[in-house]
Amino acid sequence: MQPSTHLIHSIPVDPLTGAISVPIYQTSTFVQDAPGINKGYDYARSNNPTRATLENLIAQLENGSTGVAFGSGLAAIDAVLKLLQSGDEVVAVDDIYGGAYRLFEQVYKKFGITVKYVDTSNVENVFNAVTPKTKLIWIETPTNPTLKISDIKTIAKIAKANSCLLCVDNTFASPALQKPLSLGADIVVHSATKYLGGHSDLIAGLVVTKEKELGDKIKFYQNACGAILAPFDSWLLIRGIETLHLRIKQHCSSAQAIAEFLENCPQVDKVYYPGLKSHPNHNIAKEQSKGFGGIVSFTLKNDAEAVATAFATSTELFKLAESLGGIKSLLSHPASMTHKTIPAETRRAAGVSDSLIRLSVGLEDAEDLINDLQNAFKKLHHNEVETASSVLN
Ligand SMILES: *Cc1c(COP(=O)(O)O)cnc(C)c1O
Questions:
Q1: What are the residue ranges in the chain where pLDDT is below 70?
Q2: Tell me, what's the pLDDT at 342?
């Protein structure tokens, strides 16, 4: 059976009523037959049938044993970090999601957990950074916004040889394209706010573990710390996941077309997309994932920040906003938005130049999206000609 068929039918029909859509159990507590005797549910922070359906679904989808749902991607990441103890070290990808960086540096550092940031797209850097104190390797692949790819299988071997865990933030690829647990990772986290939800209408996070024992620990933190996903949002996320394969297929094919269009644009300097042969990690991306995703980044030949911000406000279909993975195409300018708090030199060294634009390619027709970009480039060109002639006058 193909994964898309399996996914749709792995969501059970309600055994009580035959409802084909998962019921939303909007309840805080469950009546017990006798003290401690219940139907498997006692209090909705600990467990809820709608959330349990979602958790089983994501566990299946990621080929893991246990899925655990949280109120945001960061709450999911936070639950994984709670596995650590004071004195432990982490090796993390250098262009890590900004919120994860903040969590490491401004929350966990004061509890004695230290993080070494390295470019994990070169596995040698990971090998050299690991010490006997390293308990966790943290990667994102592809990364944001320069779409660097790390070799999950090889890094998993390094983790195993050093008795530490490998956690992959699989938000950008989604399980429709890449299954890190099958490549040797121990834990997968998601900002389900992005592709899994898919409609820019909720905030949610998921953790999936390969082993049940580790999953039980994460479930313990879910209940003990309480950052659960609500029943309605669990239902909404299930509904999003039902169309994941179909959506991702379209995101990938449109993103590929847009990346190729951008490569041939005279005003564009670099294009970052793992599906392009020019991408330095194209081969490993091809090997470990079924497709290259819906995010495309590019820089302009004119590297003035003002030119990039002019472009960012010139598109009509691509809406200027943070976040990604929804049906509507979005565009962002990391230097002045998501990466603004990073010192300019550090940011530029990580490849996020002043003119870098990130596209989240949505589900509109690819030709319309290309026309939208083309029109924005024309406006940019027109403005440059006008500026040049006013200088001459
Ligand atoms: C958005 C994002 C997060 C954080 O998720 P929230 O749902 O916003 O809390 C974590 N990792 C990556 C890669 C993201 O894009």
A1: 388-393
A2: 76
* pLDDT tens digits, one per residue of 221-250: 999 999 999 999 999 999 999 999 999 999
Instruction: Please identify which of the residues 41, 45, 82, 286 carries the catalytic annotation.
Output: 45
Position 130, amino acid: V
Question: Helices (H), strands (E): how many in the chain?
Answer: 13, 12
Supply the pLDDT for residue 315: 97
pLDDT of residue 346: 79
Q: List, in sequence order, every residue forming a beta bridge with 206; answer none if it has no partner.
A: 69, 190
Domain limits for position 272: 246-392
Same domain, 198 and 258: no
Verify that 60 and 79 share a domain, yes or no.
yes
174 lines ligand 1 (CB under 6 A): no
Strand 295-300: give its sheet, edge to edge: 268-272, 295-300, 357-360, 330-332, 319-320
Question: Which structure tokens are listed for 242?
Answer: 């039902």
Of 199, 170, 206, 195, whose CA–CA distance to 68 is shortest?
Answer: 206
Nearest-CA residue for ligand 1 atom 4 is 73
